[in-house]
Design brief:
Radius of gyration: 17 Å
CATH class: Mainly Alpha
CATH topology: Methane Monooxygenase Hydroxylase, Chain G, domain 1
Number of strands: 0
Distance between the termini: 44 Å
CATH superfamily: Flagellar protein flit
Number of domains: 1
Largest sheet: none
């Protein structure tokens, strides 16, 4: 478990990068598993963030990390949208056409 608040952000960044790599490989089950681990860390972060103030260095690091997480998320979403559309078609009785 991370010892400092910034460590939670770093851990989330690492998982976010792992999720992106899994998405690039089409390993969507791994993406979902990593998403669950991320949710746990975010919950812990929320619990601890109420009693912690950031130093200037940590605020800058947090900003850098958050931007990277957002970039990773945008890439994952762009890769998952077609996959989710295909899944929705199959779930609603349509057939999936593989190219």
């Amino acid at each position: 478990m991370p010892s400092q608040l910034i460590d939670y952000y770093r851990a989330i960044e690492i998982i976010s990068s792992s999720m992106l790599e899994s998405a690039k490989l089409g390993a969507w089950e791994e993406v979902v598993q990593s998403e669950g681990a991320c949710a746990i860390l975010i919950s812990e972060l929320r619990n601890h963030s109420q009693t912690h103030a950031f130093s200037i260095e940590d605020r800058n690091e947090k900003r850098r990390i958050m931007l990277q997480i957002l970039r990773n998320d945008a890439q994952i979403r762009s890769m998952s949208d077609p996959w989710l559309e295909d899944l929705e078609k199959v779930m609603h009785g349509g057939s999936l056409v593989l190219n």
